Every structure is written in C-alpha cells, then in structure tokens.
Amino acid sequence: IKFDKGDPRDPKNFSYARKWTITLICCAFGGITAAASSSYSISYESMMKDLNCTRLQATLGLSLYAIGFGIIPLISSSFSEECGRRPVYIMSSALFFLAQVMNALAPNIQTVVVSRALQGVFGSCGASMIGGTIADIWQPHERGLPMSLFAFTSLFSFGLGSAFGGLISASPHLGWRWVQWLHVMFTGTFVLCAIFVMSETRSSIVLARIAKDARKMTGDPRYRSSAEIDKPSMSSLIKTSCTRPLYLLFTEPIVQSFSLWCGFVWGIVYCLFESVTTEFQSVYNFSVGATGFVLFVGAIIGFVANMYQETLYRKHFLIKGQEARLYIPCVAAAVLPVSMFIYAWTVSPNIPWIAPLIGLTAFMSSTSVIYQVSFLYLADCYGPYASSAQAGQSLARNVMALMFPLFTQQMFAGMTYKWGLTLWALLSVVMAPTPWVLFFYGSKIRTRSKVSCKILEAEQQEWDGGATAVSSPTEEKSMQA
C-alpha cells in the first residue's frame, strides 16, 4: 500500500489550512513547555516563603525539568513509530497536565521537585516531536517559516512566562501557585485541541491504517504498508533511538561543535532566569518580570532575522549548499559576546537602565537565531540521520541547562555578577568562530565523515533510480525541540 501522487491522505498533501493548524497547535505546546520553565524560576521567592525551602532546593525543580528534555526523548520517541504522533501528543499533554496540577497543590518542596521532574518527562515526550511533525507535513524547501515559528514560539514563551510568572508570583493575593494554575489552564486547552483538532501526521502510521482497513474490507491478508514489512521490535527501536544520537554526538565534528555552542548559550539562558535578572531588577528597582518582557522582544527581533536568513538561504543555496543556512548565525556569533559584555558592565545604578536592556535584547535575538539554526543546519547536513543528530545536540544542550543553574549562585557570590558574566562573555568569544569555520569549511568536513559519505551515496542512488532510503524505519524518531 502506497500513496498515489496527490493523495489527500498523505500528510504532505494536506491543505495549507490544515498544515498551519497542525503547526500552530504543535508550536503552542512547545511554547507551553518553555513558559513552564521560566515562570517556575522567576517565582522562587514566593515559593521559598510559602514552603520554607532553600533556593538550592527550588533550583532542583528547574534542573530536573531540563534534564527530562535531554534524556527522556531518546527512549520515548520510539513510541511514535508504533503509535503515531497524535496519540503521543495526547498522552504527553494529559500527563503533563496532571503533573502541573500536582505542582500547584504541592504541600512541600519535595512534592514540587518530584512534580517538576515528571513535567520534564511528560512534556519532553510531546515537545521532542514538534520538529518531526513539521518535517512530516512540509516539504524541505517549505520548512523555513514553520521551523522559524517553532523556534520563535519557544523563546518568546520563555520570556513571556518570565514576565507573567513574575507579575503573578509577586502579587500578595496570588503567589507562585497561581502561576502553576495558569499553566494548568493552558495545558488543559491544548489537550482538548490535541484530541479534537490534531491529525495524524506520520505517513507510515497513516499507510498502516489504510492497509489494515483494506485487509478488513477484502479479507486479503496480503495488503501491507512498507512499515509493516520486516517491522523492527520495540526493543530494537529503543536501542537505535538511544545509541545513534550518542554515536553522532561523539564522532561527528559538526554535531559536536553545534552541541557545545548551543549548549553553552542555553545554559546561560537558564542562568539569566535563575539569578541574573533578579540582580538587574534589584539594581534598578524594576518590577519582577520586566526583563522577561525584554527577552521576548528579543525573540521577535530574532524571528525577523531568521526570516531574512531564509531569504539568503534560497538565494545562495546553489552556491553554498547547506552552509547557506549560516549567514545570519555568523552575525549572531559576533553579537552574542558583545551583548554579554554590555550587560555585564552596565548593570549599575550610575548607568541608565536602557543600556543593560539593550544588551539583554541583543542576547535574546542572537539566541533565537542560534536556536533555529541548530535544527535546520543539522537537518540539511544529515538528511535521514538528522533526527538523531538533533537528538544528540538536544541532549548536550539540556545537560548544560541542568548544570549551569546549580553552580551560578556560588560563582556569582565569589566573582560578582560583573566578572561572572564577563567570564561567560569571554567563553562566548572563544566559541564565536563555530559558524564561521563551518561556513567556509563545512563541506570539506563532511567529506571526511563516514555518515555524510553514506548520505551522499544514497542521494546519488536516488538520482540514479536506485535505493530510496539510507536508514531503517527506526530513524525518524527523535526530532528535538
């Protein structure tokens, strides 16, 4: 059983209205999970007073949430191979909803930490499929805008969650529990959308259902989809899902460099909400959440930059190939350390507040660009292995998000905020050449990679009318967010 050309049941042939509905619903879940992270960290003070806990205990809830997004998808993403995208979205969001209710009703910090760990586990199951869902329904040349929207929604919601979470938790009549109840409302709405509006987007699952209906109607057991032939076991799926991302992470220079660069930036983002923005608010006597507003303004600027990058990609792809994705990221790599230096050296009562806000906005704009390119560039470079490359990058990124908040308090206490941020800015200078090196030498690096050579051979076979696939049906399983 295969799709005919133009078959409306093929997810890639869905109408644009249907495609955008699915894309927006998925991006909404990415936004919900991102906002749940920043709004939690910005409401520490209210939680510490209410539950009589230490800041380190509260920080564990943030770190465990992040590590869930790095590790769990390596295991859980295989289930979309067996069950499809839609059931996993429903299950993931429903359990995420229950974990948020548990958090809102928590009588002590131990319950909060457990609920946050569960939120990371359940939220990551659905959020990790968003990139894969976009790839299911959009052709490669159409994915720029949907992927930009995905990156924008995540970072915009990260700032928005901080702004509204700070305002709610600072209210003497509301507090941190109402932050959680607000997330419960949004997640509950998403669960209903997933049930009543979301469509299945994984073509192998759709074909399997069509084949099942054909067997039922005709009584002929020979009707099969390609995914049902030599179907791997669940244990084989999980083994591949867990091992291939690690193999690419430890052996591929492109994956390694992007993982280190993106992980470092993502760790700083978490630290901004864990401690640095609190210092900014105390120096200028700003309301809690003001910096969150600035950060999602930066996300808007980053979104516009990503749209311009998409124009450059289409213009220069025939000449530069995959490296045409790196024009704006090269600029972002230079802006990032400059923005951090500006912020580190201008947070002072003697300097107008607009100066550090410019630094924060530039930082978030650069982060938005880097976040998106980490998906698109790896997808372009690794083709059928892209999901595993992105899974490895996501693992490294979220591990750093786990580690950074745990030591920042001690670092800033010993070095002060100015010199601690200066150290980070210097490290970002060291990493700034990453996209520049790949821009000029990325194609040469790929020629020395066994994985890339295998991909090139398969692409040549496709052009020659030969084999049509590199990887087994176990591959498209772990597109990360």
Describe the structure.
By secondary structure, this protein is mostly helical. It has 19 helices and no strands. The C terminus is likely disordered. It is a multi-pass membrane protein. Keywords: Membrane, Transmembrane, Transmembrane helix. Pfam families: MFS_1 (PF07690). It is found in: Membrane.
Can you give me a brief rundown of this structure?
By secondary structure, the protein is mainly alpha-helical. It is built from 19 helices and no strands. It has helices spanning about 15-40, 45-50, 55-70, 75, 80-85, 85-105, 110-125, 130-135, 145-170, 175-195, 205-220, 235-250, 255-285, 290-320, 325-345, 355-380, 385-430, 435-445, 450-465.
SSE diagram, text form:
Elements: H1 16-42, H2 44-51, H3 55-71, H4 73-76, H5 79-83, H6 85-104, H7 109-127, H8 130-137, H9 144-170, H10 176-196, H11 203-218, H12 234-251, H13 253-284, H14 290-320, H15 327-346, H16 354-382, H17 386-431, H18 433-447, H19 450-463
- Tertiary shape: globular
Number of H- or I-type helical stretches: 19
Radius of gyration: 23 Å
What structural category do the secondary elements indicate? mainly alpha
Query: Beta-strand percentage?
Result: under 5%
> How many strands in all?
0
Largest sheet: none
User: What is the first-to-last residue Cα distance?
Assistant: 32 Å
List the secondary-structure elements in sequence, H or E: HHHHHHHHHHHHHHHHHHH
Helix content: over 70%
Averaging pLDDT over every residue, what do you get?
81
Unreliable stretches (pLDDT < 50, length at least 5) are 465-481
